[in-house]
Write a structure and sequence with these properties.
about 10% helix, ten-stranded antiparallel barrel, about 220 residues, mainly beta
Length: about 220
């Protein structure tokens, strides 16, 4: 079983930096998870009009309204088979935005042969599905851009959609992964984003099962 990222990138997967090939090469057959911890140098949001939307998203672990610098961060990437038998990778990001407040940004990803792309289900209930386009940059980093978006199986209005661009790469001088995320809307402009760094450890899910907390509360077969 090849990873969903290897399926999506094809031969370009081998252009990734070796550290990224290891990180994005996890699969359920390998019984491997990747747990990252680090710091977000900055978390930001757009104009005041975006804040109510971010509060609404936070109820389903999709974005959040807080801003900050030097925010402790963790990410749990686990490969497993979901209830439909699909190879799935979790992306559960946790931000300690205040002394007694944590925010999560959850996603689960599957590869759709019918779409020839990764489908990213955002939030706790997989109502919101986004097609992803992947590329490898000149430093061997991974670039992810969002495409068509659906809510409960129906095409989501473009005017309300957030277009995300994610850059992740290996910083050899500091020995860490770097990440930068930016979400925009065609009418509202910049909506949300963050940039920071983290290191990663790999866990054997054969001896330590995939945590229930990283799985969505509901799974959806629609892609």
């Amino acid at each position: 079983m090849t990873s969903i990222f290897q399926q999506a990138l094809g031969d370009d997967f081998h252009r990734l930096h070796p550290r990224l090939r290891q990180r994005f090469g996890i699969s359920s057959e390998q019984s491997t998870g990747c747990v990252g911890t680090g710091v977000m140098d900055r978390i930001w949001h757009g104009r005041a009009v975006t804040v109510p939307l971010l509060h609404l998203g936070a109820t389903r672990h999709i974005l959040f309204p807080e801003q900050g610098t030097d925010v402790p961060f963790s990410i749990g990437n686990y490969a497993y088979r979901d209830s439909f038998g699909r190879e799935t990778v979790s992306f559960v990001r946790t931000f300690d935005v205040a002394a007694h407040r944590r925010r999560r940004f959850d996603a689960t990803m599957v590869y759709s042969p019918a779409r020839s792309a990764i489908v990213d289900y955002l939030g706790t209930h997989q109502h919101y599905a986004v097609l992803l386009s992947l590329a490898v940059d000149r430093r061997g980093g991974l670039v992810i851009r969002t495409g068509e978006q659906r809510y409960a199986g129906r095409r989501f209005p473009r005017a309300l959609s957030g277009c995300a661009e994610v850059h992740e790469w290996w910083d050899g001088s500091d020995g860490c992964f770097r990440i930068e995320v930016r979400v925009t809307n065609r009418f509202l402009g910049p909506v949300f984003g963050y940039r920071g760094r983290f290191t990663a450890q790999y866990v054997d899910t054969g001896t330590a099962p995939v945590p229930a907390a990283v799985r969505p509360l509901r799974e959806d077969a629609r892609v």
